[in-house]
Amino acid sequence: MKNFALPALLTCVSLLGQNGPETVIRGTKQFSKKSVISGLDGPWEVTWGPDNMLWITERSGKRVVRVNPSTGEKSVAVTIPEVSAPGGQDGLLGMALHPDLLKGKGTDYVYVAYTYVDKALAPNKYIADDKNPYRYLYMKIARYTYDQASGKLSSPMNIVTGFPAGNDHNAGRLKFNPFDKKLYLNIGDQGNNQLGNVCRPVESQTIPTAEDLAKKNFFAYQGKSLRINLDGSIPSDNPKINGVVSHVFTYGHRNPQGLDFGPDGTIYETEQGPKTDDEVNILKAGGNYGWPNVVGLKDGKAYQYARWAEATTPCSTLKFSDLAIHPSVPREPESAFKPAMVDPVATMFTVPNEYNFADPKCKGIDFICWPTVATSSVEYYANKGAGIPGWDKVLFVTTLKRGSLYVLPLTADGKKAAGYFHRYFQSENRYRDTAVSPDGKTIFIATDPSGLAGSMDGGATRNMQDRGSILAFTYTGEGTGAAVEPTVTTKTDRPAAGTAVATGGGAAPEYTKAQAEAGKAAYNANCAVCHGSTMTNGTMGTPLAGQYFKEQWTGKAVSAFFTHAKTMPPASPGSLPDATYANILAYILETNGVPAGAKALPTAAEALKAYTIK
């Protein structure tokens, strides 16, 4: 992989990139479904190992585990205490197995990417509070050595440290390229220019300078794919961009969570779009993929680049909205972007300008109903004449919002889409990653333990169908007409949310669904500006969901949290009625997996003393 040249503007683009959600075809191939294991603490990466085991990273569990795909037996290869997972998009993320692992060549290495705290580095310039868990959050790549006899990973070695990380859009997919023996890592745009990060400009078009590299300042690596030597240094044949050779391989990305290689070295990537146009890309050395100026194709459909940080009304005084851009915010059409850029292979999905993004079915959680599906991984698959018939060359794309596996057929050269997306395994799950058995007949899918997904009945749900699981879908034959989906567990059959949460003294808190609904509206109006719309992506407030919240509040009295909430803004401490604080607390409990009941949460701290957060 030598003498990289910057790509020319691609002019031949498949019209598949212009298709809307209605063009998806329900797949007709038949599969059986089996739960290999459940109860994993945020399975993020799953890959088939040379020992015929599934190797899995647990994002919030801070562990690498090995699971027997036949029995579900789990063994912990390593726990990494240094991992910091305060929110929903950080922690122990990508993992790459060295191709020579267990081949007797002395390279039994496993590489992992994770977020950690380093107070020796510069703090996040947008966060003033030293107690904020994102103040000194960074990402690193570390190498571990595997001992087959003990089944353990040990001897950690830092490959490269100090990469940017934050409370949103970290990406973090890590892959070993067998063709050039380099590591590839995707880093997202940190969720800037939206939600709680609305006043932070997007840096996806910013290129590192020679001075940045001399100081090991990797701030400009946001919204990039990186190509890295195995010792962490910069490959000499990396592309020269703006006169500088850095770790940067491509740029102009938003939240690129998917990465894989074809048999000829083609590099496939998927990334999440804003309201439309999740992308399936082929990465070209030095390529610019357009974000934040362009999403999908430069077609002017349903997107304008709004520069919130440059608003004439101070950005800090504005309330961010995806649906209505404040008139003081400068904006520009996609056509205003003139640099050469690489177009996607396909988008998920493109809609016209008049599309109604305020879907009433989602009851205020509009983003779940948008045309985007939140792509979370990509895997190249070829049946090689023995696997799943008809899937000669396809891409598997998992999604978080639709709880589905999308299958995209490719042309013979693997460079273009060759048909519409086919949808399989629809569920009320958040699908995170895939692995495939050596015979090509079984697809393993990792699922998130919690979060928001599309409901089978329309709208949104927090009640995940298979929480923290590895599911095995095994091909059983061809169908005719509409596909028969594997059996879907009904909501009444599945375990109640929160049953796997650690226990403590005192009764679990009770609240009604109506309280949580009222609390959601009050939270969005008064709290989201600091703590973020997902409770894990705030800029000024600490996370109110996920690992950080559990570590801070599990086992503590609800009355303590109630009293603490009354010391917070919006305007001044205690500025809201007690009933409103109780409703907000009910919504926070619901978000953290505590199920609603028939009894209302009391409004007085004294009455809450009998309850303990579990």
Summarize the model shown.
The chain has helices spanning 210-214, 513-526, 528-531, 547-553, 558-565, 578-591, and strands spanning 25-26, 29-37, 43-48, 54-58, 63-67, 74-79, 92-97, 109-117, 137-147, 152-164, 171-177, 182-187, 224-228, 240-241, 244-245, 248-251, 255-261, 267-272, 278-282, 305-306, 331-332, 346-348, 375-381, 394-399, 405-409, 422-424, 431-436, 442-447, 453-454, 460-461, 470-478.
Could you characterize the architecture of this molecule?
It is a single chain. The longest helix has 14 residues, at 513-526. The protein is 8% helix and 28% strand. With 614 residues, the chain is mainly β. The protein folds into 4 domains: 24-36 and 351-495, no CATH class; 40-167, 6 Propeller (Neuraminidase), CATH 2.120.10.30; 177-268 and 285-294 and 303-344, no CATH class; 513-608, Cytochrome c-like domain (Cytochrome Bc1 Complex, Chain D, domain 2), CATH 1.10.760.10. The strands form 9 sheets. The chain has a 5-stranded mixed beta sheet, with no helix packed on it. Strands 2-31-28-27 form a 4-stranded antiparallel beta sheet, with no helix packed on it.
